[in-house]
Amino acid sequence: MRRTRAAFGLIVFLLLVMGFSLPYQTPFPDSILLSGVLAATIAVLLSLFPENIRQLMLGKKQPTVSLEPLQILHFGAGAKPERSQWINMIWTSSGTPQHTLTALFGVIRAHAIGGDAIGCRASAKLKMHDIWLDSGNLNWYSSSLIRNLTTLPDFELLRLSTYLTNITEHIPKDDAKDLLVFYMLQNGSGVFLCSDMTHSFAGNVQNDQPLRFQLEISITAQHQPKVVTFFDVEATWGRFLIAKASQLPVSAN
């Protein structure tokens, strides 16, 4: 890649030198014609390379998406979690008993760098017993989907992830969106991935000891290379710790 970029840069440099010098040495109107030919030649050379290679050669950075995990250190009095990290709702529907929903979410914030992330998706793999299991596409936070929970006539707690299915997002350049990675329900011990797969179960918290697991998250967006990031997770009710893996494990790819 470095040799290709250097060679291409040298060719463009020589053509530019010729483009600036030859017209002065060529009688008018031939100088105008010569400048046009040189400009067309440079354009043709650029078109011979894929878009990402052209951007590298011209010194432009490839747009990408970076991931920043958010933490929950405690939940209760004095806690100030992000709005995407929790739900606390009580409502009644016609002809049905009162519904109560309190849930905490493990959230990773995705930043679009260098350009819009169009059609952005985040697929997940969960490591269980040294085996990487496909866990579907994770859901992006949507306040409207959460509000819509109160309109569901047959709401079921264990179907929460399916109600929040939102696997594609547009992240404007230099903006960020929150990715719902996993969740727990109050008074429950299960940890579930918030994906489009039914019953994507990560494990149980036992004896107040945090559940520990690893995730591989692959971010894709239109006209961008795939970004793969590994995370170490510790989860117990009221305390979610997410960190980029210090040692990269071998995935199932």
Describe the structure.
Helices cover 23% and strands 38% of the residues. The protein is an alpha+beta fold and 253 residues long. The strands form two sheets. Strands 1, 2, 3, 6, 8, 9 and 10 form a seven-stranded antiparallel sheet that branches. Strands 4, 5, 7, 11, 12 and 13 form a six-stranded antiparallel sheet that branches.
> What oligomeric state do the depicted chains represent?
single chain
Question: Termini distance?
Answer: 25 Å
Shape: globular
What is the helix content?
10-25%
Largest sheet: 7 strands, antiparallel
Instruction: Look at the helices and sheets and give the structural class.
Output: alpha+beta
Mean pLDDT across the residues is 83
Helices and strands, with pairings:
Blueprint: H1 2-25, H2 30-47, H3 51-57, E1 64-69, E2 86-91, E3 99-113, E4 117-128, E5 131-137, E6 139-140, H4 143-148, H5 160-163, E7 169-171, E8 176-185, E9 190-193, E10 201-204, E11 211-220, E12 227-236, E13 239-244
Antiparallel strand pairs: 1-3, 2-3, 3-8, 4-5, 4-7, 4-11, 6-8, 8-9, 9-10, 11-12, 12-13
Helix pairs in contact: 1-2
